[in-house]
Amino acid sequence: MDSQVSTIKGVKKIEATKKQPHAGGAFIRNILKKNTKGTGEIQIKELDESVLKKRLVKLDQELEDYKAKCAKYKKENDWYREEIETCQKDTADYIMYLESKKNEKLDAIQRLTESNQKDMDMYLLKRKKREEENQAKISGY
């Protein structure tokens, strides 16, 4: 079996008399890059149907894992959005409640102030009348 070794972008390629997959495709280069981690270089002749099927199964499993993670994170994100909306609504309701209580207290203060002012005016009026009566009694003697 005559074989010739050549290198394409750091990947060892062995050309043999058997029919080999075309090494120029991005798919094959990607597979070669993925499978060279820690195992040494992978040669084109090692990429037979069973290796590709295993890789496909592995990629399908990774895809399913990522889809599951995506669904999980989407649900979590939706929950956080609902929680934010609920908190914002609760905050707005609480602010309205506090403002109504503040307005009630301000109204009570206003009523007390007006009542106090009326009482003070009445007191001053009665005092003035008493002083005038006392002055009249003193002048009349």
Tell me what the structure shows.
It contains two helices and two strands; from the N terminus they run ββαα. The chain has 141 residues and is mainly alpha-helical. The chain folds into two domains: 47 residues, no CATH class; 69 residues. The chain has a two-stranded antiparallel ribbon. The longest helix is centred in the last third of the chain and has 92 residues. It starts with a strand and ends with a helix. Keywords: Coiled coil. This is DUF4200 domain-containing protein.
Top keywords for this entry?
mainly alpha; two-stranded antiparallel ribbon; 2 helices; 7% strand; disordered N terminus; coiled coil; DUF4200 domain-containing protein
Concise structural overview:
The chain is built from two helices and two strands.
How is the secondary structure organized here?
Blueprint: E1 4-8, E2 11-15, H1 26-35, H2 49-140
Antiparallel strand pairs: 1-2
Query: How much helix is in the residues?
Result: over 70%
Oligomer: single chain
By DSSP (H or I, 4+ residues per run), the number of helices equals: 2
Total count of domains: 2
Radius of gyration based on Cα positions: 46 Å
Give the strand order of the largest sheet, numbering strands 1, 2, ... along the chain: 1-2
Tell me the distance between the termini: 152 Å
Beta content comes to 5-15%
Q: Give the overall silhouette.
A: rod-shaped
Number of strands: 2
Structural class: mainly alpha
For the report, how would you describe the main beta sheet?
Answer: 2 strands, antiparallel
Order of helices and strands: EEHH
Contiguous low-pLDDT stretches (5 residues minimum) are 1-8, 10-18
Mean pLDDT: 81
Protein name: DUF4200 domain-containing protein
Coiled coil: 49-118
Keywords: Coiled coil
Organism: Batrachochytrium dendrobatidis (strain JEL423)
